[in-house]
């Protein structure tokens, strides 16, 4: 132990840093400005009110005053109403009996009830522990006992049978039963059945603790504003791994707007990457929260750095009203939180997102400490945990704002969200030698910011923000920019820009007109760089005005340049800039192009200290499609970590559209090769940054960036089977390349159209914005069937990949199985929600919302009830208007390859040799190769598809032979394949000896047989009797009748097969539940007719001849002419025999339940029937399994019954119903498997809900 360190000297204050931004000094001088009187609304995944530091404020008030779940994930359907019984109990929605406390007052005696799986509300860590605990208590002991008991029986039975040469049928079945018990118990032990659970991250109360935590016993651990109160709004949806949704955000904003007199600050540490910010439903509402209701909004910039233009949304929204915060790490934090041996200079974190935004604004307003060792929820069983991210930096700034507003309330003086943001920016400490893109205006300085806020309280522009828009001649974007951002060529001449400045007043609709009239500012415009030229003066009143800016980049060396045009009030220069126009210029270099070599950029022996970020901007050469990056650590004594971030910005798309990110660890002299896609003529930013948390020694890195050129003349290949082929031209512009064209289809894509659409007006107050602006919801229902297990992706292409920028405020889909059991959810980003599904039927429900009803009505059919006076409109699927279509992508069981040829002749060749298919081809510089992709798919590849229909198959086309190139140089392929036509019977199969009249009579007979299954009982029986009298020897007549009898509905009021009602004496007598249970069985008359019809079928078939046919391998030549016809006849007879035997056995088993006296002979009868069936088919065949189950139950062999039942249910998931579970539970009880009884009964209420989950 170091004798120079005392226990009290540990820098606890650095665990929740406050000195870096001056919070400690500010509170020392102003102890009552600690946030008291201020309420911070935290938009995140939730706050734990019982966590340390979140129980009370410095004045003894409750710390967390409100807790709202805005997502809907916790909603419970309580539409069911129950009445209290005489004993004071009610029956809950799960079926459990609940004792109503006598202290509850309910004059009507009626209660609304609902059910919610408690595990849905548990964080992941709690669920894991609860599952382990319940398994240990309720499952493992009984399972071990049952398994050991069955194993002993099996071993004892084996020892007893060693001496006997033969065993009886009873011995055989007994042994099978014990073996089945051991097998099923072992299977259960490996695969314990559990609920379907959604994942969830921590309740993000660590942000609340960083913002306003209060520890009276140790104030050094306090958050920034210990006196402030907190309101928690969950915008993270548990169904989506706590990702935010538009629905949750709108609900949270609407609540804050309705209660704007209560809230002062919003902290939001959520965000996505948007494609644009000029439009978007959520951005408009965020602007309204600030401009109209005066809430100061603080948002994290994101953790997507170190490349430029990676700042998220928010803060990048419609207006620049939101305070965007980057993450900073100080020397003290490095020592106390990260345990670094040596302190380094303070810096932005490597991963902190950078500006500028895609439309030129800086994006990051200020930076603040982005890490803390903070207390975490009790369920983690930890005292504290290191948290870092801009999601820590934003709460720090929100806490600073709370301190400023607390002081403003006490002094008092006025403020607006605009003056708060301006005071933070103009007082920030700019970190020397650090670029502005991560730190914004700099590190927050609280005392200076508070001083500016007070001086702004009397300023003319206190309640004014300045909306900046920039235009220029030849702009590609259709929307004005918020700043000047020059990045892509041409860059060889000066550019002129028009900057518009439009004053926007706080609460503009209700402001005193005199304030607008009297508003006038004389501004001076300053630029601190020679390459940005601006006018000197700018007079501004309450009207939009413009000025011109000239940006001359000629003569600037390659790299990135930043400046800002600052507008100062000539009467108050000390207050800092009134507004800023940010200017960012990127000057790319050109790759070195030498004859017969690939274009390259050499970066030799570049020195990297921890946290160093080196940016290289390269204009992608024409003809390039991908790039390779070779790294080599040439200097250093330890392993060093580097972040490689490559990005090109594509107009109209987010920064993630063309991006590559990789963390690379290199030992001295170690090398690494990376590859990523590029787009010709765009500017590529290549960032190589050394990880900040490294030992303080310099590492030297050499890198070579090489551009590769194998381009294709199409961005995507779309063809149909009727096209036969698609021609592509592959071009190589640089050095010699080896190509190997290949097409791989990976997905079957099915078009889903809604079967039902409903438009609802949502209830208030949760879904109503102030001033009675109601929100409407459109719910579309889709269904699909999977014939095999696969992985699916749902894509609503109209709305996909847009959230904050979307016209619609939200989209959310939920997937259910045929029992309405919830399976999965997804939202605007399809690639985030791939879902693995078993085969079966599924129902998908999609919800989209909007404030304007007409925006949703276009997705209703023309036959819908579109009366705007109605709160509900619906569509039943009959309209010609298809509603909102979805794309269902299903992963193929195995990839399908399409052949590539070098000429049309090779495609046409009826027997092409392997040489005609393109293999490896060597392409010289500036050469072309034609590739013809055949649309032919082998019929075998179309078998066993997961989906029931195909819109197209989807895959990729690759050209590169290089392993790295195959992964990054690809284009999409879509192949449309029409549905296969129904097979038509060959005319050769007709009997030429039959006359046309005979053929007609046969067709009438067959049609009548087919119609018999659709008729009511009386008519069906009459038709059967008529057919029997004419065609008694025709086997299909009796098979059809047998199927009809077997499929008679259970709830047919106990009608007989001929339609007559049974008398009351024949009907079971008892309570309603008992009657309902009895109606599930067929009547005695039906069962007896099933047995008689089965015997008739068996009597019509020569069973001996059938067995001889299947048991003999006949000479093919002797029956070649009639082989197919004979086989078809024999297969039909065999199937009829098996069906008759199975249905007879099942009827006998059911009859024994109605006539107990017949139970004595049932076992012997079923033994005989099952043995007969086994001559033609395995007892585990899906057509025989139910008989096998009944046979096992009749013999009391419940182990065999369980095995057969699971085989039956696994082969047909649609048979998993509440009835099948009840059946299993009954068998488990007879076996004494209490753990299985517990398991099935526990999940029953959630596995078979009465209705779909609400959105």
From TrEMBL:
Domain of life: Eukaryota
GO terms classed as biological process: proteolysis
Record GO terms (molecular function): tripeptidyl-peptidase activity
UniProt domain Tripeptidyl peptidase II second Ig-like: residue ranges: 733-859
Limits of the Peptidase S8/S53 domain: 35-442
Biased segments, Polar residues type: 149-167, 1050-1067
Keywords per UniProt: Hydrolase, Protease, Serine protease
Stretches assigned to the Tripeptidyl-peptidase II galactose-binding domain: 608-694
A matching Pfam family: TPPII
GO cellular component, one term: cytosol
InterPro entries: Peptidase_S8/S53_dom, Peptidase_S8_Ser-AS, Peptidase_S8_subtilisin-like, TPPII_C_art, TPPII_GBD, TPPII_Ig-like-1, TPPII_Ig-like-2
Name recorded for this polypeptide: Tripeptidyl-peptidase II
Organism: Allacma fusca
């Amino acid at each position: 132990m170091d004798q120079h360190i005392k226990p009290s000297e540990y820098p606890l204050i650095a665990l929740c840093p406050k000195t870096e931004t001056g919070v400690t000094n500010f509170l020392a001088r102003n102890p009552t400005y600690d946030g008291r009187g201020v309420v911070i609304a935290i938009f995140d995944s939730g706050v734990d009110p019982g966590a340390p530091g979140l129980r009370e404020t410095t004045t003894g008030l409750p710390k967390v005053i409100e807790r709202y779940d805005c997502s809907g994930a916790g909603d419970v359907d309580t539409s069911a109403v129950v009445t209290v019984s005489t004993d004071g109990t009610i029956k809950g929605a799960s079926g459990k009996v609940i004792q109503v406390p006598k202290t509850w007052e309910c004059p009507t005696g009626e209660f609304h009830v609902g059910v919610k799986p408690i595990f849905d509300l548990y964080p992941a860590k709690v669920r894991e522990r609860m599952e382990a605990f319940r398994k240990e208590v309720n499952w493992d002991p009984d399972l071990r006992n049952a398994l050991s008991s069955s194993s002993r029986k099996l071993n004892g039975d084996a020892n007893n049978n060693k001496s006997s040469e033969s065993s009886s049928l009873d011995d055989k079945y007994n042994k099978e039963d014990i073996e089945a018990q051991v097998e099923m118990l072992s299977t259960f032990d490996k695969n314990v059945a559990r609920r379907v659970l959604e994942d969830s991250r921590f309740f993000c109360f660590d942000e609340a603790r960083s913002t306003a935590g209060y520890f009276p016993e140790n104030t050094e651990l306090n958050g920034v504003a210990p006196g402030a109160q907190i309101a928690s709004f969950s915008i993270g949806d548990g169904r989506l791994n706590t990702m935010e949704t538009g629905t949750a955000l709108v609900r949270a904003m609407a609540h804050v707007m309705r209660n704007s007199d209560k809230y002062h600050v919003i902290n939001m540490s959520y965000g996505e990457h948007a494609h644009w910010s000029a439009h978007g439903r959520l951005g408009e509402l965020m602007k309204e929260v600030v401009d109209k209701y005066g809430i100061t909004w603080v948002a994290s910039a994101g953790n997507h750095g170190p490349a430029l233009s990676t700042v998220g949304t928010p803060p990048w929204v419609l207006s620049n009203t939101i305070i965007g915060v980057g993450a900073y790490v100080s020397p003290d934090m490095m020592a106390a939180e990260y345990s670094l041996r040596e302190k380094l200079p303070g810096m932005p974190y490597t991963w902190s997102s950078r500006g500028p935004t895609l439309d030129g604004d800086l994006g990051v307003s200020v930076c603040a400490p982005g890490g803390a060792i903070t207390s975490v929820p009790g369920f983690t069983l930890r005292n504290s945990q290191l948290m870092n991210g801009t999601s820590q930096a934003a709460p720090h700034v929100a806490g600073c704002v709370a301190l400023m507003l607390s002081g403003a309330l006490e002094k008092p003086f006025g403020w607006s969200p605009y003056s708060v943001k301006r005071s933070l920016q103009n007082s920030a400490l700019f970190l020397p030698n650090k670029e502005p893109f991560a730190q914004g205006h700099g590190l927050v300085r609280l005392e200076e910011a508070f001083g500016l806020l007070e001086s702004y309280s009397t300023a003319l522009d206190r309640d004014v923000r300045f909306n900046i828009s920039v235009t220029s001649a030849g702009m590609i974007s259709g929307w004005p920019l918020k700043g000047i951002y020059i990045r892509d060529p041409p860059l060889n001449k000066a550019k002129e820009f028009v900057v518009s400045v439009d004053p926007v007043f706080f609460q503009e609709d209700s402001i005193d007109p005199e304030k607008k009239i009297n508003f006038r500012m004389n501004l001076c415009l300053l630029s601190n760089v020679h390459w940005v030229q601006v006018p000197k003066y700018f007079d501004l009143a309450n009207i939009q005005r413009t000025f011109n800016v000239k940006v001359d980049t000629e003569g600037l060396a390659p790299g990135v340049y930043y400046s800002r045009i600052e507008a100062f009030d000539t009467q108050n220069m000390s207050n800092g800039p009134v507004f800023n126009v940010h200017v960012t210029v990127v000057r790319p270099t050109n790759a070195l192009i030498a004859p017969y070599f690939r274009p390259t950029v050499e970066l030799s022996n570049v020195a990297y200290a921890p946290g160093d970020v080196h940016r290289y901007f390269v204009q992608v050469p024409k003809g390039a499609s991908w790039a390779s990056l070779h790294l080599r650590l040439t200097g250093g004594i330890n392993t060093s970590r580097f972040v490689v971030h490559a990005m090109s910005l594509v107009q109209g798309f987010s920064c993630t559209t063309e991006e590559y990110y990789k963390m690379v660890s290199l030992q001295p002299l170690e090398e690494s090769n990376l590859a990523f896609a590029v787009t010709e003529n765009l500017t590529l930013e290549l960032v190589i940054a050394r990880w900040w948390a490294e030992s303080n020694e310099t590492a030297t890195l050499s890198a070579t960036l090489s551009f590769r050129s194998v381009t294709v003349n199409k961005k995507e290949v779309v063809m149909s089977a009727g096209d036969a082929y698609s021609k592509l031209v592959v071009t190589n512009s640089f050095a010699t390349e080896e190509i190997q064209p290949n097409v791989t289809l990976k997905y079957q894509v099915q078009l889903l159209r809604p079967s039902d659409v409903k438009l609802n007006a949502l209830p208030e107050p949760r879904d109503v914005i102030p001033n009675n602006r109601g929100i409407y919801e459109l719910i579309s229902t889709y269904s699909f069937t999977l014939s095999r297990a696969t992985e699916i992706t749902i894509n609503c292409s109209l709305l996909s990949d847009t959230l904050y920028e979307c016209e619609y405020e939200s989209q959310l889909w939920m997937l259910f199985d045929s029992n309405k059991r919830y399976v999965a959810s997804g939202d605007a980003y399809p690639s985030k929600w791939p879902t693995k599904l078993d085969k079966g039927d599924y129902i998908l429900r999609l919800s989209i919302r909007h404030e304007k009803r007409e925006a949703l009505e276009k997705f209703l059919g023309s036959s819908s009830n579109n009366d705007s006076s109605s709160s509900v409109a619906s569509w039943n699927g009959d309209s010609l208007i298809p509603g909102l279509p979805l794309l269902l992508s299903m992963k193929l069981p195995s990839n399908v390859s399409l052949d590539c040829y070098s000429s049309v002749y090779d495609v046409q060749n009826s027997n092409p040799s392997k040489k005609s298919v393109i293999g490896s081809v060597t392409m010289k510089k500036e050469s072309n190769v034609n590739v013809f992709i055949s649309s032919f798919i082998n019929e075998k590849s179309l078998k066993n598809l997961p989906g029931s229909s195909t819109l197209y198959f989807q895959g990729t086309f690759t050209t590169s032979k290089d392993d790295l190139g195959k992964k990054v140089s690809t284009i999409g392929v879509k192949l449309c394949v029409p549905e296969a036509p129904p097979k038509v019977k060959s005319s050769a199969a007709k009997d030429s000896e039959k006359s046309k009249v005979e053929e007609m009579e046969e067709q009438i007979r067959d049609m009548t047989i087919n119609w018999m299954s659709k008729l009511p009982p009386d008519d069906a029986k009459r038709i059967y009797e008529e057919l029997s009298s004419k065609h008694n020897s025709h086997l299909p007549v009796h098979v059809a009748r047998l199927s009809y009898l077997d499929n008679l509905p259970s709830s047919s009021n106990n009608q007989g097969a001929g339609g007559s009602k049974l008398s009351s004496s024949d009907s079971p007598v008892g309570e309603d539940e008992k009657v309902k249970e009895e109606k599930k069985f067929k009547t005695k008359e039906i069962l007896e007719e099933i047995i008689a019809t089965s015997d008739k079928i068996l009597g019509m078939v020569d069973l001996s001849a059938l067995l001889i046919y299947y048991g003999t391998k006949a000479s093919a030549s002797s029956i070649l002419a009639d082989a197919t016809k004979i086989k078809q006849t024999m297969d039909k007879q065999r199937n009829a025999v098996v069906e008759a035997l199975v249905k007879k056995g099942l009827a006998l088993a059911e009859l024994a339940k109605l006539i107990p006296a017949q139970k004595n002979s049932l076992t012997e009868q079923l033994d005989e029937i099952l043995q007969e069936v086994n001559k033609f088919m395995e007892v585990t065949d899906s057509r025989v399994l139910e008989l096998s189950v009944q046979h096992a139950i009749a013999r009391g062999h419940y182990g065999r019954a369980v095995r057969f039942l699971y085989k039956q249910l696994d082969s047909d998931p649609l048979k998993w119903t509440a009835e099948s579970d009840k059946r299993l539970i009954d068998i488990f009880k007879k076996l004494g498997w209490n753990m299985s009884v517990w398991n099935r009964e526990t999940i029953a209420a959630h596995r078979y809900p009465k209705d779909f989950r609400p959105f």
